[in-house]
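User: Teach me something about this protein's shape.
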Amino acid sequence: MAEKLMTIVIWINVLADLIASYLADHYGSNGIVYNILTPLEKLLTLGIYYIYAPNRIFKKAIIGVSILILLISLIAFYFSSSSRVFHIQPFLWTGLILAILSYMLIRKYLTSKKDFNLLAVWFAFANLLYYSMVVSSLGAQSIAVSFSLELARLLGYGNDIAYSLWSLILLISVLWIKKLKA
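Assistant: First, the predicted structure itself:
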């Protein structure tokens, strides 16, 4: 089940990026795509975490974090002056929350004496890496703009690098697990 959800997350990202690229080329703005994609992707991620949660306490925490991410996203969408502009602050805050939860899950899996699902660990690792890199690079980018546009542009590449690493880790882990099962 979780493998299918991970594959859906990957395909949603591919589709959203294609749509966003088209909108940026033809209409000059693609923020609406990412304002819808990021909460959806984070909620799917939390759904996968829920499936592999090591105990009831983590399951309750995941439900609470899901509600929090949904509320932050809805409030940002409601109070935003434009839905065409990407809401960076809610993305950063919810990304930080997801990075912390990913770390906690990895730590719980690796310190547990019980068997754990290797795919769940790789998925949590990919998210920890992605959100840690993105939160730090995009968070610093808004500050860097006041110093140097070149530095801000370079920090923006942190998002591209993190997204590439996230995608590669997910694809390799899903394919690797399928090969191990065969």
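Now, about its shape. The longest helix spans residues 149-181. The chain has six helices and no strands. If you'd like, I can walk through any region in more detail.
User: That's plenty for now, thanks!
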